[in-house]
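Quick one: structure for this chain?
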Amino acid sequence: MQNNKEHGIKCGTVTVSVYKDITGQTYFRITADTEDVLPVSYIIEDTLYLY
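Got it. Here's what it folds into:
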């Protein structure tokens, strides 16, 4: 039987918010709630800038 529970202790949360300005240009804002997950937020940011 498969168990869907997560194992481990949560280190933090990374949030990606997507916005559209008045000209229709899309941009995003990435926030991390702890310093432990900052490296993950940097990877997400770098990847999004590629597109």
